[in-house]
Design a protein that fits this description.
By secondary structure, this protein is mainly α. The chain has one domain. It is built from 9 helices and 2 strands; from the N terminus they run ββααααααααα. It has a two-stranded antiparallel sheet.
Length: 218
């Protein structure tokens, strides 16, 4: 069936089955929601965080969800009205810089709020590591288009690997799912020709390395 592109009102876009599937995957595994997924994984990682009460976990998640998803989403209409981005996909690396820098600020604010609440160090470090990752991606985006989707997937993998080695817990099931998600996401981004292989691999390794180093060592 024809689909109407929301940013080209008078033009109908026909997607092949492969392209439609790649677009669905890109939405479901969107980098904006992956940090919140990581927090949920932390709550169920077999570490001391599992001893937190449901009320404590819920309060932390609400703060995290607001600071890392709601606030970044809230600036999209503004930057579109200002014509700073051509579409919500932000297809060029230049378009990504300002939204990413604003996201860094929101993440920093989230880290500050959580630190004031004296949340467990693992959660605080995870939020700080995510902030550093986005800052580095924003700096890279000044010159080059790196895959945000794959950076987020790599960050999840780095998080789980660091927890596995640092705390000695068995996260084999979670790791298998995350590695599979990374592979599927990479296929989707390449299938859509949204990135080159170098941009996909660099994004994945960047996220993995930063999260592993910061969670394992701090």
């Amino acid at each position: 069936m024809p689909r109407q592109d929301p940013f080209i009102p008078d033009k109908l876009i026909f997607y092949s089955n492969e392209e439609a599937m790649a677009r669905i995957i890109s939405v479901i595994l969107h980098p904006l929601i992956m940090p919140a997924v990581g927090l949920l994984l932390l709550f169920n990682s077999g570490t001391y965080l599992e001893f937190m009460s449901y009320q404590q976990q819920r309060a932390i998640f609400i703060i995290y969800f607001t600071g890392t998803i709601i606030l970044p989403l809230s600036i999209i209409p503004l930057v579109m009205l200002q014509r700073m981005i051509a579409s919500i996909r932000m297809e060029t690396h230049h378009e990504r810089v300002f939204p990413l820098m604003m996201t860094v600020i929101f993440y920093g604010f989230t880290w500050y709020m959580l630190s004031r609440l004296r949340v467990p160090g693992l959660i605080s470090n995870y939020t700080l590591a995510a902030s550093v990752t986005i800052l580095i991606v924003a700096m890279v985006s000044l010159k080059w288009k790196i895959s945000l989707h794959m950076t987020a997937q790599g960050a999840l993998a780095g998080l789980l690997l660091a927890i596995t080695f640092r705390y000695g817990v068995n996260l084999q099931l979670f790791l298998s799912i995350v590695f599979l998600g990374g592979g599927i996401t990479g296929w989707a981004r390449l299938s859509l020709k949204a990135h080159t292989p170098a941009q996909v691999y660099t994004g994945y390794l960047t996220g993995l390395a930063i999260l592993f180093i910061m969670i394992y060592n701090f």
